[in-house]
Every structure is written in C-alpha cells, then in structure tokens.
Write a structure and sequence with these properties.
By secondary structure, the protein is of the alpha+beta class. It contains 12 helices and 22 strands. The strands form 6 sheets. The protein has a 5-stranded antiparallel beta sheet, sandwiched between helices. Strands 17-9-7-4-18 form a 5-stranded mixed beta sheet, covered by helices on one side. Strands 12, 13, 14 and 15 form a 4-stranded mixed beta sheet that branches.
Length: 480
Amino acid sequence: MLLSILRSLMKKTIITATLLGFVLCLTAQTPLSNFLSNPALQHANIGVCVKNLSTGKTLTDYRSAFVIPPASTQKLLTTTTALELLGSDFCFSTWLETDSTIENGILLGNLYIRGTGDPTLGSQKIGDQMFLYRWIQALRKKGIREIRGNIIADVSFFDGDAINPQWIWEDIGNYYAAGVYALPYLDNTLNIQLNSTTVGDVATVVKTLPQIDGIEFENHIRCTSITYDGAYVHGLPYNNKRYLVGSIPANHGIFGVKGDIPNPPLLLAQHLKMRLEEQDIPVGGQADYMTEGLPAGRTVLYEHRSEPLSEILKEINQNSNNLYAEQLFRYIACRLSLPCTIQNSVQVMINCWRNRGINLQNSFIMDGCGLAPQDAVSAGTLVQLLSFMNKSKNMPVFYESLPVAGESGTLKGFLKNTPLRGNVHAKSGTTSRIKSYAGYMTNLKGETLAFAVIVNNAACKSRQVQNMIEKFLVETYSQE
C-alpha cells in the first residue's frame, strides 16, 4: 500500500529517487531486517557487521561503529595481539635459580622459582603434569642432593594486581575469575567437596582438592530443590578466607564446587618442597613467595618452557579459558616495561593494532577475557581484526585455534543442524544478558565472509538470542 501511494506521488510531485530507495530498503526483506524484526530485540543494544573478504565489500552494517560489551569475543583481541607480537612458536619460560653455590652436593642458599605467567604449570588442559619431577631430575643433574635454604616462588614479573579491579564481587574467587600471577598453578582452581543432604540444610565442606594448609570457609551454601550448581565462592588473592554462598542440589551426596586457589605461587613452592623431600632431597628452609625483587646475582639452574603459543591459543579460543587469556594478556605488557601491569597490557594492544591500521582508541579494554562489564568493542572493529588476520602470515594458526560450528569447543551446539555446520570458525561470547559471535564462514559462492554480531539486553533467554543469530547467519550464507 505504501509503495503504491509513493509511486502515484512520484508521477504528480517531485520526490527524489533517494527517498523511494530508502523506503524500498526499509520494506525489503533481508537477513538483517528479519533479524532486527524480532520483538525481543526491540530495545536491545546490537551491533552487526558482515564483510565479504573476497570482494572487499561490506554486506551488512548495523551500528557497527558503536562499542558494546562483547563478553568472550574480547578474547579475539588478546589472542590475535599475542600471535602477532610473539609468534606461534613462543613459549613461556619458568626458571629455577639460586643465590648461592653448590658444595659437595649441598645447595647452600635458596632455590627460586621465577615465573613469567605460564598458565600451563600443572594444568589439566595442556602441558606436562609431571613437570615437578622433571625439575627435580634437572636439579640432580646439577649435583644437588640437599637444599639448606628456602624454596621461594618469585612472582615479581607481574605487578600486585592479581585480581582485575574492574571485575565484580560476584565473580571474584570463582574458578572462572581466578587471580593472575607470574606463577599460576593447577589452573588456579580449587575443587571444594561438599556433602549435600536434605532440602534446607547447610552443605558441609568435606575436603578440598588440592589440600590447602590453613584455608578457612565461612559457609552459607544451602541444599535446595535446584538441579544445577548455584553456589559461588568469594575471596581475595593471597588470603585463605573464602566465603561460600548460594545453593546446590539436595540429596546429592558429594557435590563439587569450583573456586580459586588463594595463593598458587605459594602452593607451587610447597609442592616442590614436598616432592624434593619425597625424592630424598632434604630442604632445610621453608616454602615461601615474593612479590617484589630482582634476579640479579642469581644463577639459573634450569629453564622450563611451556607448550607453544599455538596450543595455548587453541585452549583459549576453543574452550574460552579465562585464566589462559588473562595470563597471556598480562604477559604482553612486558613488551613495554616490567613489572607487567594491566595498563601496559592495554597500551601494548593499542600500539600493536595502530601499527597495523586498526584504531582501538574508541574501544574500552579492561581485561583480556571479556569478564569485565566495562569492556566494550564494536562489531566493526572485530571484523577489521578478522580481515587483517585473514591476510596475516599467522592466519593458519589463528584459524585453527577457533572452534568449528556444530563440531568443537564452545560452538559444538551452534548451527549444528544447519547448512553451516563445519563451515563457521568463530569465537563465541556469553555472559548475563550478552550473546556474541565473531569469525569466518564461506558463502554459497565459495567466498570468505568475516562477521561479528553482538547482542546486549535482549528481552528473552540467551538460547533464543542464539537461535536468532543462527537464523541470521544461515540467511546471510544463502543470499545471492
């Protein structure tokens, strides 16, 4: 009806073709218009960008310059920056050092563990879980049969901000928001075993894995009729007091809740001391840690190297590992100065992409994993990043690190029963009221598309937003 009236008016009055074209654009059905027409998105904060990398043409642009909290698609900034600056073969180093001499098999002084942020030390994800025994073998090869001094974990490579000041209290102390240290250990994750009994009872703490000497719990976790883990752990770095709140399923027997290890560097030093003594290398001193100091005057006894960055990126992007992302984010600050700080990490990231023609000055980068509510980046910036990486020498490693729709990682259930299964390689992002995806797909013509979709505050459940984004991507893939 509206089109008929406009055509009639065109014959009688002077109405520009521009106006008619604008109206035609509004009334035409496109993947974007279909996506935005959903009532649940009426008041949502949305940014969408799709670019054909084969032709260089932008196919879809909706508020693509507006910065929006991206959740875990923020990890794309971290992983691409690290890959461009460090290279895929980069490995974290951890050194065993001493400030003394070895005489007749006796190390007269202290043994230091100096870290640079390797997230794989004792990790259940990747890396050598028997590394402590490798360290002991290396010390034996140096002729060490006894240590008179202390075992000291040196974490001075990073500054004292183990917890990002922009993270919220609800998250701090939980495994997914564990502290960031120059010596992380065992994924910085503490498994708290609770005994779940009848509805209304307070669950009792049975034990922790690993065991932490001196840990204290103020426990308010109740057994309720819920069927999921509704418990939260709160606490500060280097502090053994942990507050347990929320609820867990009743009548479940032993139920595990995951929090953070309060002091991973100290625990690493304690475990090394224990293993040394088990292997008949007595230690006269204590296990301890230091947050400030210089390795000047120390002798390196052994260098431990992590898995290469290519493997670390797979863990970050495939499984959206916050700890790995934060450790890597903090490490890149050493390109500017030491100790590594959050502010310097941000500046290194900005400098990296400025030199590659991408402006991050209008983005808000608070962390490396997307957990901070203040993080904000535009869909257009993410597509710029993806476009650059598509031509980078590091593209094969980056592309391999991304989960595949319907097949792997956080995308295993995404687009599973659609033509795009196995076609889309992308990073997902999900937190309370945020759903986002950014990555690559190939259209029916065999052309490569880079896309980013960020949705905040939709008036529906996260799964429904996912369904909408899936429909939009399938329609985008299918359009001529």
